[in-house]
């Protein structure tokens, strides 16, 4: 169904040593992007999840907030000794974490982004994956909550001065995840302790419904979990990580994928047909299906419905990454990080593969909000050479490529996929485009050497590093984010 208003532009944020630049996204005029905002010096940037605001840490004490429609600064915050900052989903609030000089100093502050008003302050000794950001918001910002010792505290984002309006008591809680759309449930994780198994429980966010969890699952040999809510807040996927694999098949431990529903219709393991780790899992935009890539290499990828029935097999290969097109029609299965960069593009509605290609050395990857383009990037500090951007059509054909001496960050500006027209007719317009074939043995090194300004070092970086399991990669990425924010 066509949208009534003109769709928004597909803007791209590019950050390098000279700061951030905003490109007008594809389709590019004459094959080159035009610049909408150029060279704003900053060390960290983040879009709000609705794409309305952009936050940039410009110096040790200055944080700028930009209106993304007009690309003008609407407010700047002076925050001395800031170590980290983030922006809420609708861009209403900015959270900052400062270096504290005493326990009496309230070093976590929630600011109104448009006025610069401080609406809440508290003291926090340190920052970790489980505690930053301090406040987690639902996508519509109707619900906000934070983790403290043995409980989750709920706040009213319309009036933080009320303090905690509700407290969910969970002894031993180590992490939680608020459902985002809508913010009606919260999942909590309690690790193993004194011979008791670890557990994940789902509670309603409504105070009057919190006497008992709506769903619960216990785990033995559980070191950590990853919690993944779907759109609609009806299902929760739980990747359970154990540091020790009792079968001795993996040095990196063992992972299992569990699934819980808020209506009690499913509670247990997802039936994966191959032994080995769970590399990646992703819900579709609708929240009615999810995809999993799993198993010892070559890994297998499968799409399941919300009752855990397999719907489509996406083949096997050197894969560890899933990226589901936000319009729901296409999905990319890829092997990034320490893998060679193979990508397979599938049409989910037609149940067929569209093409194969490669994006070697990719650090980040994501679909555009309209579902027409797939962008990969090679960035520092993960890789210090061959930094660059590639943009592909939905079927894997290469649309655009640009190399950089140094590149730190590349992001699409977020937009709701509902603002864009249906893409069912795209296949007709791009069927004639020739797919970029994966380079034959020896050609990949030659091309990389020609593109890089340091040709002599290109062959060494093409060699894949030792495989890193999902939980270790997640830990590294969190540390990198914290270091980036500190710098």
From TrEMBL:
GO terms for molecular function: mRNA binding; ribosome binding; translation initiation factor activity; tRNA binding. It comes from the Eukaryota. SUPFAM superfamilies: DPP6 N-terminal domain-like (SSF82171). Gene3D superfamilies: YVTN repeat-like/Quinoprotein amine dehydrogenase (2.130.10.10). Residues 217-410 form the Translation initiation factor beta propellor-like domain. Keywords: Initiation factor, Protein biosynthesis, Repeat, Translation regulation, WD repeat. Residues 446-460 have a biased composition (Low complexity). GO terms for biological process: regulation of translation. Residues 437-472 are annotated as: Disordered. Belongs to the WD repeat EIF2A family. This is Eukaryotic translation initiation factor 2A. It comes from Erythranthe guttata (Yellow monkey flower).
């Amino acid at each position: 169904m066509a949208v009534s208003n003109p769709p928004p532009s597909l803007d791209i944020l590019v950050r390098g040593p000279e700061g951030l630049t905003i490109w007008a996204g594809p389709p590019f005029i004459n094959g080159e992007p035009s610049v909408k905002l150029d060279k704003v010096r900053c060390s960290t940037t983040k879009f709000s999840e609705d794409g309305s605001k952009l936050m940039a840490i410009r110096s040790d004490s200055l944080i700028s907030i930009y209106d993304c429609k007009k690309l003008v600064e609407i407010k700047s915050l002076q925050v001395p000794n800031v170590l980290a900052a983030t922006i809420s989903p609708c861009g209403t609030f900015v959270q900052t974490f400062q270096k504290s000089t005493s326990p009496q100093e309230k070093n976590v502050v929630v600011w109104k982004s448009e006025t610069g008003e401080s609406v809440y302050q508290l003291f926090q000794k340190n920052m970790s994956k489980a505690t930053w950001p301090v406040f987690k918001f639902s996508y519509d910002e109707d619900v906000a909550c934070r983790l403290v010792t043995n409980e989750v505290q709920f706040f009213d984002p319309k009036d933080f001065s009320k303090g905690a309006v509700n407290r969910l008591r969970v002894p031993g809680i180590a992490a939680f995840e608020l459902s985002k759309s809508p913010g009606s449930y919260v999942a909590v994780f309690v690790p193993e302790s004194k011979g008791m198994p670890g557990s994940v429980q789902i509670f309603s966010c409504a105070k009057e419904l919190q006497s008992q969890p709506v769903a619960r699952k216990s785990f033995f040999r559980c070191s950590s979990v990853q919690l993944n809510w779907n759109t609609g807040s009806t299902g929760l996927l739980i990747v359970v990580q154990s540091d020790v694999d009792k079968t001795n098949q993996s040095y990196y431990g063992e992972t299992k994928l569990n699934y819980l529903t808020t209506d009690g219709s499913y509670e247990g393991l997802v039936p994966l047909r191959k032994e080995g780790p769970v590399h990646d899992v992703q819900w579709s935009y609708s929240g009615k299906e999810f995809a999993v890539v799993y198993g010892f290499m070559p890994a297998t990828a499968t799409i399941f419905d919300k009752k855990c029935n397999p719907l489509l097999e996406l083949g096997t290969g050197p894969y560890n990454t899933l990226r589901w097109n936000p319009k729901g029609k296409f999905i990319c299965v890829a092997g990034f990080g320490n893998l060679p960069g193979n990508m397979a593009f599938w049409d989910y509605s037609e149940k067929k593969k569209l093409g194969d290609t490669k994006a070697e050395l990719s650090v980040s990857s994501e679909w555009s909000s309209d579902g027409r383009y797939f962008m990969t990037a090679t960035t520092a500090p993960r890789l210090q050479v061959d930094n660059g951007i590639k943009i592909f059509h939905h079927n894997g054909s290469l649309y655009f490529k640009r190399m950089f001496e140094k590149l730190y960050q590349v992001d699409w500006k977020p937009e709701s996929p509902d603002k864009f027209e249906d893409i069912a007719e795209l296949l007709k317009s791009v069927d004639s485009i020739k797919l970029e074939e994966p380079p034959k043995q020896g050609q990949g090194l030659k091309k990389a050497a020609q593109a890089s300004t340091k040709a002599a070092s290109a062959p060494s970086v093409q060699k894949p590093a030792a495989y890193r399991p999902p939980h270790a990669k997640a830990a590294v990425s969190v540390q990198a984010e914290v270091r980036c924010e500190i710098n």
